[in-house]
Specification:
Low-confidence stretches: 5-18
Structural class: alpha+beta
Largest sheet: 12 strands, mixed
Helix content: 10-25%
Number of helices: 2
Number of strands: 12
Strand content: over 45%
Radius of gyration: 21 Å
Strand order of the largest sheet: 7-8-9-10-11-1-2-3-4-5-6-12
Mean pLDDT: 86
Distance between the termini: 66 Å
Order of helices and strands: HEEEEEEEEEEEHE
């Protein structure tokens, strides 16, 4: 009987410790999100890397994004992407093509610039990870594990600058062993920007003879 009580006590203690750890991890992420919400706008320059050592795939690309609330203007891999709060405009300069998508058509599982600081709020469990020293910066990691067993994501590690409480990097590991890393290289806030940055000038592109504009239903 004493053995059963001891085992039960250890089990309940483990649950309590895990619960406290999860609460601490969630509180840290909430702190980051709350701080970001206090900025009028954010400008990011980032490094996006994809690695799959099994398939010997390694790809690295630089990009930038300006965010204001849910609106954003993204420049990545030779394309521009504008979200005005209602529609997304994907401008593919190489193909001279513009694709217009309604917000409801956006894939909820896709990590867009407007979700980068809030994607953790739904569909994950939380766990404090390691505290690492990277380039002289103390980075506290939080491990996110999808609650959906059918998710293609194994886990997501969110690295947070211990001093600024800004996101340093996000490392997503897929069940196919593909590792996608988003590392923030430049983080500026409250910049003097024009609202035109989040407006797609459709008439200008329609006047360009070689550009095609499509808006799938």
């Amino acid at each position: 009987m004493k053995r059963i009580i001891l085992v039960l006590s250890v089990f309940l203690l483990s649950i309590n410790v895990f619960s406290q750890d999860a609460s601490k991890a969630k509180a840290l992420l909430d702190q980051v999100a709350q701080k970001v919400e206090g900025y009028s706008n954010i400008y990011l320059e980032f490094n996006h890397r994809i690695d799959n050592y099994d398939a010997d795939v390694h790809q690295e690309t630089l990009g930038s994004a300006t965010l204001k609330g849910d609106k954003y203007h993204l420049k990545y891999m030779g394309t521009e992407q504008i979200f005005d709060g209602k529609k997304t405009y994907i401008i593919i300069h190489e193909d001279e093509e513009v694709i217009i998508q309604k917000a409801s058509n956006n894939n909820n599982s896709t990590l867009t610039p407007s979700k980068i600081f809030s994607f953790y709020k739904n569909g994950f469990t939380y766990e404090m990870g390691d505290l690492k020293n990277l380039k002289g910066i103390k980075i506290q990691y939080v491990k996110l594990t999808p609650t959906d067993s059918n998710s293609e994501i194994k886990n997501v590690m969110v690295g947070i600058d211990n001093r600024t409480k800004h996101i340093y990097n996000i490392i997503e590991t897929g069940k196919n062993n593909t590792i996608t890393t988003l590392e923030v290289r430049t983080f500026k806030t409250n910049q003097p920007i024009s609202e035109k940055l989040f407006i797609f000038d459709e008439q200008t592109f329609r006047n360009k003879k070689n550009y095609t504009i499509s808006e799938p239903n």
